[in-house]
Write a structure and sequence with these properties.
Strand order of the largest sheet: 6-5-9-3-2-12-15-14
Enzyme class: hydrolase
Number of helices: 27
Bound molecules: arginine, zinc ion
Cofactor: Zn(2+)
Family: Belongs to the peptidase M1 family.
Keywords: Aminopeptidase, Hydrolase, Metal-binding, Metalloprotease, Protease, Zinc
Number of strands: 31
GO molecular function, one term: alanyl aminopeptidase activity
Length: about 850
Amino acid sequence: QAKRLADYQAPDFTITDVELWFELEPATTLLTARYQLKSQRKGATELVLDGQQLELLSVKLNGQQLTPAQYQVTDDHLRIDQMPAQAELELQVRLNPAANTALEGLYLSDSAFCTQCEAEGFRRICYYLDRPDVMARFTTHIIANQQRYPALLSNGNKVAEQQLPDGRVQVSWVDPFPKPCYLFALVAGDFDCLTGQYVTQSGRTVSLEFYVDKGNAARAEFALEALKRAMCWDEQTYGLEYDLDSYMVVAVDFFNMGAMENKGLNVFNSKYVLADQQSATDTDLYNIESIIGHEYFHNWTGNRVTCRDWFQLSLKEGLTVFRDQQFSADMASATLSRIDAVKTIRTHQFAEDAGPMAHPIRPAQVLEMNNFYTVTVYDKGAEVIRMLHTLLGAAGFRQGMDLYFARHDGQAVTCDDFVSAMQDANGRDLSLFRRWYSQSGTPELTVQSSFDAEQQQFKLVFSQHTAATADQQDKRNLLLPVRIELLAKNEKQQHLLVVSEEQQSFSFAVAEPPVAVILADFSAPVRLHYPQSVSQLLTVVQHASDGVARWDAMQQLWSDLVRQAVRSSEPLQVPAEVVALYRALLATPEGDLAFLAELLTPPSFDLLAEQYQPVPVDALLQALQQIRRQLADELAADWLNCYQQLIPAPYAYRQEQVAARALRALCLDYLAQSGQQAELLLQAYQSADNLTDQLAVLKACRNATHPLFETLTAQFEQRWREDVLVLDKWFALKASLPTKDTVYLLPHLTQHPQFSWQNPNRVRAVYMAFAQQNPTIFHAADGKGYQVLQQVVLKLDPINPQLAARLVTPLLSWRRFETHRAAQLKAVLSQMLAQQGLSNDLYEKLSKSLSD
Ligand code: ARG
Ligand code: ZN
């Protein structure tokens, strides 16, 4: 029952106006919904509305009550056969938000009502044409007990509030912008509210309101300021201004993802709103700013211009991720945010391409839409937008954006429409470029270089090839913007090459053989094969103009060393030049210290694993351990010296400080590795005036399985027991300790009074950390790690299918492991697939993983 992009048809009917009356009670909420319907196809008489898990009480057509014989109700639909071309339809349904643990539709987060409708959640609120190309004006009336629910919120502007005779209150909202129902939101609860103001560039005053748990208003201040920065940035960068009188953000504890851009009323996972120096790390603050930006930017890229159908999800997500990346680059460190994005692609996105769920950024078929909120659609989607930006330049890209809004404001459109706007605004033929939208997989770009001394010419030969993926056999050549830099003694040359053929060469006039930097700034999301010697790589590390390229060369160097060690089964020996480079850099830490910390961090297990088929798990873990030990031992004095030079100032979230903390954390990590330095670690923990520094100590102790880990984590748990967002960090630390006992500890963690299977943040804190940050134990040879995750996924599926389907991901790519582990994984997956009553979410992933 998968849906296909190729089958798209405009709907027979559309809904132009919606009026909703909610009478809120946790277990029995009554909803009356009135729709103005219009035929869009001559002769259409059959209306099929989507609906799930609804109790239908009444159907009225143009004021006339219909008898059950006049409509049909199935598990997924309400069908009316004799629809006039224009009609008013009024439905009444009963809902049970208190029983809704899937956190989709209308549900309770603690005692507050909230909604999540993207992608197809509105059908759990009422029967509707639940598809994004049906755009209606919404009016929402919320009727509730005022003592229990003082805040009654929905999209748009509040237009009325009245006391009802029975003591309840009715609040009415009108959203003047037509929108698809996935952007609908309703929130009711008892919150504290932090307010602010923003005056737009055209002089309109917007009221900014953050609704948070009682007592937490002060913790929303950073998010409020970040929102103001995002509003200002979008005006300056894209000329885009906010369009309603108020912008509301509600922070809830029960939420399946990061946040949701509902028109005028964002709902956020509280983890991405609440933060102060005691309870949040530098990384948390960075993420908050980026997600606040992301949801705000959706107001134009997503809401004003939305998607025609869900296959076009990347239209709004790829573009909005690109915009939030630009924003983060401007607010924090540009190089570091780019490195972050590159790591996401190389680890998770390349892995997705190599696994059973491979799909293009515009998928061609989908069983459960919730399964396609992926790193491919989001992050590779953003890389595709970035390539357009690279090819057209900032000014050309902006012209394309302007044309896109001029053409499509108020419409539901496709990825093709977006590329056409870019193409037309720039007079460029982008037809080959469009292939990025339909072709899945990671292109391999192989480069050979040669120098002709006589001609004084340097030549680069590129060949591109994309291997077949699980979803798609035939692959074709793509258009790749390739930034390069040639480093010679007396000159540096930078070029933007456009590689579009299967094989293509370029020549450059240069007096002596240069060292080449290929794919500077990771200008295309490809896997690069360009063999370079240690000394060439070190030249790039020291001399490339682009920070991303310098970091990348260092990563390449480590990857090469690991590969040699894995091939030869000899212990990995860190070359003397590398030790010397570390020593020199640590001696006088200066410049961008955050970059330095990143430069000195070897690749993660996941990043390395992604480069092998099959993944030699044990050999990789061993090689990484050998690197750690040597860097810790040979540079012990250097780490200590560097650490001592970086004297902490009183905490502030400022870039120089963030950077210094990152480098100190790296030093601590290696200092702990020796198993000693207990005094120094203890002192670092106790003197810290912020969570970033404290966690650095805990992580260092974890990575080194240092004896202090138990003592300090126990203290930490004592201190933060009542503060779940911080306690989640404790759950994650415990679950990621790389010792055998951890697998037995996990069930105990779930017995903690603050743990709840209903709360996705708790579940992720324990089990995502286990599966993603503890490769040693997760991949243990006895298969126990896999079994633990299997049990959790099966337990969660009936509670929260979206969450279950996210958690199963680390098990799916069984084909990528060596025989022994592949067999264990396959067994675990087959057992799951044999279960009765699996959700669509889980079924889609398991069946794809096991099909041949
Ligand atoms: N549109 C939201 C965002 O990226 C995420 C919605 C995710 N929905 C889902 N069903 N997974 O900002
Ligand atoms: Zn988004």
